[in-house]
Amino acid sequence: MNTKKFTILHSNDMHGDFLAEVQGAEGKLIGGLALLSGYVNRVRREEENVLYVISGDMVQGSLIDSEFKGISTIEIMNFIAPDVVTLGNHEIDYGLPHLLFLEKMANFPIVNANMYIAKYNKRLMRPYLIINVAGFDIMFIGILTEAVLQSLKMDRLIGTFISLEEASHEVGKICNAYKDEDIDLTILLTHIGFESDKELAELLNPEWGVDMIIGGHSHTILEQPAIVKDILITQAGVGTDQIGRFDIVVDDDTNSIVEWKWQLLPVDESLAQPDEELQQFIDSFKKEVDRKYNAIMCRFAQKLTHPRREEETSLGNLFADILAERAQVDVMFVGSGSIRGTEMGPLVTLGDFTAIFPFDDALYKVAVTGAQLRQIFKHILRPENRNSEGECYQVSKAVKAVYVDAATDLESLTINDQPVKDDEQYTICLQGYHYENSAPNVGLATEELTALGPSHVVTTSVIDVLQEYLGSHQNLNSRVEGRLTFKTTP
Which of 134, 283, 338, 480 has the most neighbouring CB atoms within 10 Å? Predict the structure, then answer.
């Protein structure tokens, strides 16, 4: 038996989480890229065969990243030097041309097998990478979430395989065309969510020889990897507060993992010392951003929170109410994922707001029937949507919706305390991303949304509306009021 030990470190959904935070009574530093880099460097010194991989969403979610549109993130990642990275949906947030610019900036390989230039059937990125470590060949293949296709919907040149069946076929195509008996280990780097990773594993042909799936997108914290058809499946939560570590032994004769151990390690001062050179580099970005964004925008009456995207939140209610007032609609739907933090206030700086609401977009206003409105709420409130992968919404104050999980149906839906009537008309407003991709997001195709009349663009910038409102209103307050209520039984 010819075996070799490897250590694979992995992160996902880092979202520009550059800076360490002080936590606990002892004031310990937690997370941040300087501490994470310090640990990666330590392992590279201590172990012989080390690989560090990232499963998507390096960008978007921090003030620094938003200000520099991902350029700061790629420069910092060049400093850490991951061995291979796959794309996440947020790598597309600054547009396809900018993504291609960032890819050229990167000193590390980025793999993705299922983004295509549709007209010419040509892949946009390198589909796979084979790394030779200590005489062993390790193949990495990148697979993306279907949210990327939605982000690129207006660009007719770009397409992607979005179903799990199609993604599995793409994996098979790569393995059939490029994998040979010298490939000792095959790893999928995915950004489709943990539950989808398990479904994908079920679809893979064992003859393709996939050994591991290291994923992202659902921000899942695990005690141990899942195992489906002998494929190890894992991910490492969200941000830089933790890092995944595999210690594996690979048999060159059978091209298989014969021993493995996995840990999800908290990134703190007990794990490693900060990488001081990287910290200085990050601080250079932070100083520039601080000068611009420390201006006070407003003050709330109390701290407003957004702890979970699947439920009504006080901060979500505030944003929905502001935008509903601007649009003059019966129902404002604000994508819960647009709100990228868990709390804001009571003092709010421009930096606080920009970090928590980084996505700018237009607002589309349409008229729908009461029957269509009920269909929208049934779609977005259904139990299978209320997970870390679903598209959930915050709604404006006129709404009260009660959903019964056991019946998978609405118990009641009222607007301004009046029951919604199927044959009456109601005005609703959606952010551009959700309007352009309305079928998967709200359960009605764009053609159905505009059946009663064309859509109207209320504003081309949600951020402009929110900034202007917050800047001219002080001591704003908002509470969870029961706009969205879930019952297990009738």
Answer: 338
